[in-house]
Amino acid sequence: MAEPTGATALGTPADDTASRRTSPRGYWTNVAKRLRRDKLTLFFALLLALVFLSAIFAPWLAPADPYATSMLKRLTPIGTPGYPLGADELGRDMLTRLLYGGRLSLLMGILPVVNATVAGCILGLIAGFFGGRVNMAIMRAMDVFYAFPSVLLAIAIAGALGAGVVNTIVSLTVVFIPPITRITESVTTRIRKQDFVEAARATGAGNLSLIRVHVLGNVLAPVLIYASSLVSISIILAAGLSFLGLGATPPEPEWGLMLNTLRDAIFVSPWVAVVPGVMIFITSMSFNMLSDGLRHAMDVRM
Amino acid sequence: MTAYVIRRFLYAIPIALGVAVIIFSLVHIAPGDPLSALVPADAPSSVVERLRRDYGMDRPVPAQFVLWLGRTLSGDLGVSIATGRPVAGELTRAVANTLLLAVCASLIGFPLGILLGGVAGYFNGRAIDRIATATAITGVSVPHYWLGMLLVIVFSVELNLLPAMGMGPGGSSAWAWDWTHLRHLVLPAVTLSVIPMGIVTRTVRATVAEIMNEDFVEALRAKGMRESQVVRHVAKNAAPTALAVIGLQLGYLLGGSILVEVVFAWPGTGFMLNTAIIRRDLPLLQGTILVLSMFFVLVNLLVDILQTMLDPRMQRA
User: Fold this and answer.
1) Could you tell me which of A258, B6, B19, B253 has the fewest CB atoms within 10 Å of its CB?
2) Helices A39-56 and A270-298, axial angle in degrees (round to 10)
3) Phi, psi for B86 (deg, rounded to 5)
4) Which of A175, A3, A173 has the alpha carbon at shortest distance from B254?
5) Whole-number percent of chain B with pLDDT over 70
6) pTM of the complete model
C-alpha cells in the first residue's frame, strides 16, 4: 500500500558533476564520511546485518529441527526452558523457525526488487534513450500498471498463478517494474538532451557507449536509492502474500506464513503469535532507515 | 479548464482498457484450461462444452476479450463458482463495506498525517520534527496485518474492550450507526489508517519544509506579516501536493484493505478477494479486482482534476 511516488526533483546531473569536482575528497569518500557520522543509520545497518547473519547461519544457530513437531509442546508459552520463544501450533520451536524463516522471507522480499531494478532499468533506458514511439509504447504500458494499487496487483497476479514462492517473486517483480522504469526514463530523457551527450556523440561515441558511460552513471544513484526504499514494502508485501496463503506453503518456515498459522491461536497463546511479525517489522524498518540514511548521505533528492 | 477535463477523461479511457486487458488475462495466466477455472470440477462434459460455446471460448483470444468486455460493460461480471450467484450482486454490499472502512480510516489517518507532517515541516530539524518523522517511518514500516493482530491481542484478548472480528454482533453484516456496530469498526479502521498516516506525514513534511525555504516566505516575514498569516500562505502552497497524496492514498485504501479485512473478518471486497483466492473462484477474483481498479482509476482522475482546479499551473497530459 505504501506506494512509490516517482522522482520529482532529482539533482540535475550538471550540479552533481560540479559538486564532485569541487570537493577535494571525491564524492564517495564524502558519502562514506557522512554515513559514518549517522549513528542511527549505522545502528539499523547493524540490526539488518544481524537479521541476515541469523538467517544465513540458521542451521548452526538454531537449537532444534524447524520441522520437528510435538503434540505435547503445542503453543508452549514464551520463556519455557528449552523453548525461549515458545512453540507454535504444532509444537515446533519458535526460535528455530524464526531463524530459518528469515531465509525465505528475505529472499521473497529482496529478489523482486533486484529483478525489477534490472528489468526497470533496461526498459527505462530504452524508453528514455530512444524516445519517440518506443518511449510512448513502453511508458503508456507502465501507466496501465500504475492504475492498480500495488497490493491489489500483487494479489491479482499471485491469486491467479496460485500459491508458491516463485509465483510471489514473479508477482511482486511485476508490481515494482513500473516505478523503476519511470524514474530511469525521466533521468535518461533529461540527460540525453544535455550538451555533453551531444558532444560525445559528435566525437563518434555509439549508443551503447553513450548509455554505459554517460547515462548509466547518472541514472544509477537515484535508481538504487529508490530501489532500496522499495525493499521495505516488498518485505511486508511478500510476507503479506504468505499471510494470505499465497506465498510460501506449509510446512516451510516463513514469517508471514507463521503469522497466518498462529492467528487461530491468539486466544490461547497470544504472545507467541506476535513473534514472527516482530521480525518482519524489524527487517522492514531497518531497510527503511537504511534507505533514508543512504539518500541523505548520497544527497539524492527524490 | 473544460478542455483539460475532457482531455483528462479521454486519457483515462485507454488506461481503463489496458486495465481490462490485464484483468482479462488473469484467467489465462492461471494454470490449466481457463474454462476449468470457470466451472466446478465435477461438471459433466456436455455442460462444459455448452459453456465453452456460450462463453465463446472456442474462439480466438482477441474475440474472447471483446465478448468479455461487452458482457462486463453491460454489468455482467460472471457467476461465482462457489456460490453460483452473479458476481456483480455479491460485490455491491462488499464494496459498500470496504468504502465504510476506508472512509473511516481516512478520517483518522489523513488529518493526523497532515497535522504531523505540517508541524514537522514547519519546525524542520527540531525535536518535534524528529518525533513526527520517526512516527511516520514506523507507520510505513509496520506490517499492518501484524499490527491488526497486535491490537486484537491487546484490546480483545487481554483487555476485552473491543470485538476482534466481523462488523456486527453475532457476525451479522448488516450495518447500523450505533455503538454496538461502531465498536467493530474501531480496530480495523485504526489499523488501516496507519500506512496512509505515515505516507501523508512524510509527503506533507517534505513539501512544507521545501516551501519554508523559499524566498517568498522570507519576503512575507520581512514585510512584517504576522506568523499566523505566513503559515496560511505556506498551507495554501502545500495544499495541492497534500491533496494529491491523499487522493492516491484513498485509492490505495480501497484496494489495499485486503490484509486488514482478512485479519478482522471484515466482510468487504478484500475479504471477498481472499475467499475467492482460497476457493480458486476466478470469476469472483476477476470481478472484484476489476471493480476495485476501476475505482482507483476514477479516484486518480478526480484527484488530477481537483488538483488542477486548485493550482491551474499543474495542467498535465
Assistant:
1) B6
2) 130
3) -60, 135
4) A3
5) 93
6) 0.86
Determine the residue among B258, B279, B314 to mutate to test chain A binding: the one whose Cβ has the most chain A Cβ atoms within 10 Å.
B258
A44 vs B: CB within 8 A: no
Task: Check if A140 contacts B (Cβ < 8 Å).
Answer: yes
First-to-final CA distance of chain A? 19
The terminus-to-terminus CA distance of chain B in angstroms comes to 13
Dist. CA A203–CA A198, nearest whole Å:
9
Sort residue B266 into left (φ over 0), alpha (ψ -120 to 50) or beta.
Answer: beta
Residues of A in contact with B262 (CB under 8 A): 243-244
Can you give the three-state secondary structure of B235-246, one letter per residue?
A: HHHHHHHHHHHH
Cα B66 to Cα B52, B58, B69, B260, B289: the distances in Å are 16, 14, 5, 35, 19
Alpha-helical runs (H) found in B55-86: 61-73
**Grid coordinates standing for B224?**
512584517
Decide if A246 and B157 are in contact by the 8 Å CB cutoff: no
Chain B residue whose CA is closest to A156: B289
Q: Which residue has the higher pLDDT, A236 or A297?
A: A236
Number of other residues whose CB lies within 10 A of the CB of residue A54: 17
- Report the largest interatomic distance among the alpha carbons of chain B, rounded to a whole angstrom: 85
Based on its alpha-carbon atoms, the radius of gyration of chain B, rounded to whole angstroms, reads: 24
How many CA atoms lie within 13 Å of A272's alpha carbon, on the beta-carbon side? 32
- A259-282, pLDDT tens digit by residue? 988 888 887 788 888 889 999 999
Choosing among B142, B145, B243, B271, which should be mutated to test the A contact, i.e. which has the most A CBs within 10 A? B145
pLDDT confidence tier of residue A302, bands split at 50, 70 and 90 = low
Helix (H, G, I), strand (E, B) or coil at B69: helix
The residue type found at A302 is M
Contact A104, A277 (CB under 8 A): no
Q: Which of A149, A240, A245 sits opposite B278 (nearest CB)?
A: A245
Residues B303, B288 contacting (CB under 8 angstroms) = no
pLDDT grade for A286, boundaries at 50, 70 and 90: very high
* 3-class DSSP state of A3: coil
B157-199 residue pLDDT tens: 888 888 877 777 766 667 777 777 788 888 999 999 999 999 9
Say which residues have a Cβ less than 8 Å from residue B103's Cβ, sequence separation at least 6.
none
